[in-house]
Amino acid sequence: MLTKFVFVIGLMLSLNFIPSTLFAKGDAVKGKKTFNKCRACHAVKTGKHKVGPSLAGVVGRQAGKAPGFKRYKGLKKTDWKWNVNNLDGWLKNPKKWLKAKNGKRSSMVYKLKKKQDRDDIIAYLQTLK
């Protein structure tokens, strides 16, 4: 039993198996440049909010729970976290994605149509603590 477990772990490591929900496939440097379009509404410093919440530490955070941000409407009482897959869907079309996720509306209107741009921004967001 232990031998099978060790074999599977070794195989996963040798194939560079990394769940897509953990790490973005993008370029964080390019993502930082693309993120400039987002800076009008979002800050990247912890606790500093604009129209939208600070995105510092957003990856892995419970949706709708940025400390000190009170303007959530569509994300109140959510039971999911911001992982790579959720962020990708959100950035692609926030209104449509949130409506499908929990039946609520998002006030975010900006969309990133290009998959590479979304991957790059998510990679950048993963660097923010």
What secondary-structure arrangement, pairings included, does this model have?
Blueprint: H1 2-14, H2 28-34, H3 84-92, H4 94-102, H5 115-125
Helix pairs in contact: 2-5, 3-4, 3-5
Strand percentage, roughly? under 5%
Shape: globular
Rounded to an integer in angstroms, the radius of gyration calculated over CA atoms is 17 Å
The CATH architecture is Orthogonal Bundle
CATH superfamily: Cytochrome c-like domain
* Cα separation of the termini: 39 Å
Return the structural class.
Answer: mainly alpha
CATH topology, by name, is: Cytochrome Bc1 Complex, Chain D, domain 2
Could you tell me the number of beta strands?
0
> What is the mean pLDDT?
87
Give, in order, the helices and strands.
Answer: HHHHH
Which blocks of ≥5 consecutive residues have pLDDT under 50?
A: 11-21
Helix count from the secondary structure assignment: 5
Could you describe the largest sheet, including whether it forms a barrel?
none
Describe the model.
The chain is mainly alpha-helical. It has a single domain (23-125), classed as Cytochrome c-like domain (Cytochrome Bc1 Complex, Chain D, domain 2, Orthogonal Bundle). Helix content is 38%, strand content 0%. The chain has helices at residues 2-14, 28-34, 84-92, 94-102, 115-125. Helix 2 crosses helix 5 and helix 3 packs across helix 5. The protein is globular. The chain starts with a helix and ends with a helix. The relative contact order is 0.20. Mean pLDDT is 87; it is low at 11-21.
